C-alpha cells in the first residue's frame, strides 16, 4: 500500500525512536565541496537535534560509536547505545536487538540528517512495517516496524528497495509513505538548495556558496 502523507496518523503504540548518529566531526563528507569542516560538524549537530525534537515525548535511543555524540545524546535525555566497529547496518541491528531485550516492541528508525522532520511516532502502526523513502526512492529515511519482524538494516545505495523486499517477505502489513518533508535529507550539495530546505537552514550556514545570503 502506498499513500502520500498529509495528515498525522495516531497510534496506540508506544514505540521507541532510534536515531543512528555518526561522529559529528566525520559527518556530511559529501558536502565538503561547499562547506568547510566546522560548518559540516555544526550542520550535523543541527539536523540531529531536529530529529530528536521530532521524536517527541516517549523513549528515544541514539546509537553511536563516538564519545562526543554519546555525551550529546545523554544531555538530550536519550538512551545511549554504544556500538563500536559495527558500521551503520551492524550498529542499527545490534541496537534494535538491545532495545528488544529492554522490552520495546516497536521501533521507528530515523536518519539524523533530516532538516524538516515531522513527528516520527505518527508512523508507528500495529503489526505494520512503514517505510519512508527519500525523494529519489533510493534511500530509506525512516523505517517503522515491530522488533519481532526479523528485519535487518540494509542501508547504503538502493536501501529502500532492499528494505521493501524484506518487508514484503515477512507477512506483515506494509505501507510506503511518500512524505515530502521526511523525504528530505542532506546528502549532496544540491540538497542544501532545495526550495523547502534552504529557508530553514540555520542562519550561520547562509554564507555557503549553495545558499549565499547575509549572515544577519
Notes on the structure:
The protein has a single domain, classed as Spore Coat Polysaccharide Biosynthesis Protein SpsA, Chain A. Helices cover 25% and strands 19% of the residues. The chain has helices at residues 37-55, 67-75, 87-101, 159-168; strands at 2-4, 16-20, 60-64, 79-82, 106-110, 128-133, 140-146, 173-178. Strands 1-8-6-7-5-2-3-4 form an eight-stranded mixed β-sheet, with helices on both faces. The N and C termini lie far apart (46 Å).
Q: Looking at this structure, what is the CATH superfamily?
A: Spore Coat Polysaccharide Biosynthesis Protein SpsA, Chain A
Helix content: 10-25%
**In the CATH scheme, what's the topology name?**
Spore Coat Polysaccharide Biosynthesis Protein SpsA, Chain A
The overall average pLDDT, rounded, is 90
State the end-to-end CA separation: 46 Å
Q: Radius of gyration in whole Å, from Cα?
A: 17 Å
Molecular shape: globular
Please, how many helices? 4
| Uncertain stretches of 5 or more adjacent residues | 1-11
Q: Helix-strand pattern, N to C? A: EEHEHEHEEEHE
Specify the CATH architecture. Answer: Alpha-Beta Complex
**Which structural class do you get from the secondary structure elements?**
alpha/beta
Biggest beta sheet attributes: 8 strands, mixed
Question: Could you tell me the strand content as a percent range?
Answer: 15-25%
Number of individual domains: 1
Strand order of the largest sheet: 1-8-6-7-5-2-3-4
Strands, total number: 8
CATH top level label = Alpha Beta
Amino acid at each position: 500500500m502506498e499513500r502520500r502523507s498529509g495528515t498525522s496518523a495516531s497510534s496506540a503504540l508506544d514505540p521507541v525512536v532510534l536515531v543512528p548518529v555518526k561522529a559529528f566531526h566525520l559527518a556530511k563528507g559529501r558536502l565538503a565541496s561547499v562547506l568547510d569542516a566546522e560548518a559540516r560538524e555544526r550542520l550535523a549537530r543541527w539536523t540531529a537535534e531536529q530529529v530528536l525534537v521530532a521524536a517527541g515525548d516517549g523513549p528515544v535511543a541514539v546509537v553511536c560509536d563516538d564519545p562526543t555524540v554519546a555525551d550529546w545524546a545523554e544531555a538530550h535525555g536519550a538512551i545511549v547505545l554504544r556500538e563500536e566497529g559495527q558500521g551503520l547496518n551492524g550498529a542499527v541491528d545490534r541496537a534494535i536487538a538491545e532495545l528488544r531485550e529492554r522490552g520495546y516492541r516497536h521501533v521507528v528508525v530515523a536518519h539524523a540528517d533530516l532538516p524538516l522532520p515531522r513527528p516520527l511516532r505518527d508512523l508507528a502502526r500495529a503489526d505494520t512495517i512503514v517505510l519512508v523513502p527519500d525523494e529519489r526512492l533510493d534511500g530509506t529515511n525512516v523505517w517503522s516496524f515491530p522488533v519481532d519482524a526479523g528485519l535487518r538494516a540494509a542501508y547504503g545505495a538502493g536501501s529502500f528497495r532492499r528494505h521493501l523486499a524484506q518487508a514484503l517477505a515477512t507477512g506483515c502489513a506494509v505501507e510506503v509513505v511518500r512524505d515530502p518533508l521526511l523525504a528530505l535529507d542532506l546528502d549532496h550539495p544540491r540538497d542544501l538548495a532545495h526550495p523547502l530546505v534552504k529557508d530553514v537552514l540555520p542562519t550561520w550556514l547562509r554564507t555557503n556558496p549553495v545558499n549565499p545570503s547575509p549572515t544577519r
